[in-house]
Amino acid sequence: MKKRILALVGTLALVAVLLVPGVAALAATGPDTTTGSTTSTNNTPTITSVTLKDSDGDPTSTLVPLDTFLLEIVAGDSNTIDHIDYIDIEVYYSAPAAVGGAVADDGGSTTVETTEANEATADDMTLLPETPAVEDAYYIGADHKFGYARLNVGTAGAGTWTITWKYWDGSAWTALSNVTDGTDGFTAAAGSHDVTFDTPADWATTTVAAIASLYWVKAEVTAYTSLATQPKGTQAWIPSASPGAWDADACAIYKWDDTDGWSMEVSAGVTTNTWTIDTDNCVTPIVFTNLSDTWTLEFTPGKIAQEVDVSAASWDFYVKVVDLAAASVEDVSKVLNSMGAYCSISTTADIDFGNVALGATAAIQTPGDNILLSETIANDTHTLQVKSATTWSDGVPGHTMALKITAGPGSNEFCLTIDDATSGSGHPSTPQYLTTADYVDIDSVAPARTATIADAPEVATTTNLYMDIILGSTGIYVGTFTGTIYLQVTN
After folding, report:
1. Residue 132 near residue 105, CB atoms below 8 Å
2. Most buried residue, 154, 345, 400, 424, by most Cβ within 10 Å?
3. Are 10 and 16 in contact (CB under 8 A)?
4. CATH code for the structural domain at 3-21+348-490
């Protein structure tokens, strides 16, 4: 659980509270660097690997807002890397999307199951025939290249067979590389499982069962002995394609080119953005006569990059290496990365309850709109919480008053209440009493994650908070009392 705490300290006359806003620091963007220009002839670029690492250089699949990460790209060209003109990198939020096609193949007799694969009816996907044979298969297709397929297995298969995951390379079905089959050949326990693989450089669209122009993978039976339980599927997904446009909570775009070096592309007019690139620490090959070398992007995810666990969605990387003369593009997805939580809180003004008589109730007097304005930035749904110091004092030894956490303050006691709505004149509509030991949720205040429309800057979510102070009828000295109230945001 990620939390940010802001201590709110103030003055009171007779009882007043001064709340000091917190300050958030923004990361800075480093200067650009450049490399020499190149010339291009008819060559073919390649990508050998794409590896995400933390700031210590260790491989990771967990991103965290405002932390530093490295993306290492090993790329080459069939002549020399001098012919690579630019590399585009998109870091983007990818939600599981509907498949473009799903087909069951039983000995060459195909059944289209696209509708079945895109809805949640149990066991309506025929992952293997009742009597399987070598070359039987199940196909999953999409209109864009993808790096994993997610399959909800309804009934786990039992028996002895081998599944090989393949793709269409333009002329033949070829085994995918670096496959991790979470379905264990359709024998894994019921539930959702991921099949991940390297996105092939030569992946081509084809037609399966009259469904044309999709990128297909197929789970092919390459060995078969026996079947005791036929595996059935319930639903399938593939990752959504990159949006291809900068968006602070959903997509960051970076680029290396042979003239200007490394850069981050942000929409014109956007001034508030905590995604960064450290161009001083990005790496460009030194010798461009090599056939292959390593480019390294050093970057920082922004505050509102959507928090996600890979069981629900993910952050993926789309990498494109281009040789303009050859008009050849290589792309690959580094998929299924989680994004950690981020949240922060601040206030925009001090507050003061003014002069309050014994036994009386008073709302916030300063600011004049009777509001404590909370501003939060969070990359997921979050909750505001509050508590108060146990005692407040006017600075004179022995001159204190104690917070009572329920209604009806007695001698030398006071209460504080809060709500995000007002019944009028700044008084809380549904008063909630502040406690001292533990934070309590401010009822009904659960803002959604901070989001932006496409191309918009990062902005805070504002919440109006209304407070009352209630004094006991006796035992409180005349004076200016100060105390501390704490607001906390957690997701």
Report:
1. no
2. 345
3. yes
4. 2.60.40
